Amino acid sequence: MSAWLLLVHGDDDAAEQTEIVPANSPDEAAIDRARVESASVGLFGAHLAVLRQPLRAAGRSTAASEKLIALVTTLPDGAALALAEMRPSREVGRPPALLARLEEAVTGRGGSVEKRDAPRRNELQAWIRGHAATNGIALEPRAAGLLAERIGGAMWESDIERGEQTRVADGELRKLATYAGERPITAADVEALVADTRPASLFAISNAIDRRDGAAAAAALDRALAAGLPVLRIMGALQGRVADLIVARDLLARGATPQELARRVGRGNVRTAERVAEAAGRYSGAELEAMLRGLFEADLAIKENRMAEEPAVSAWLGEFLLGTRRAGGGTRS
Question: 72: domain range?
Answer without folding.
Answer: 4-116
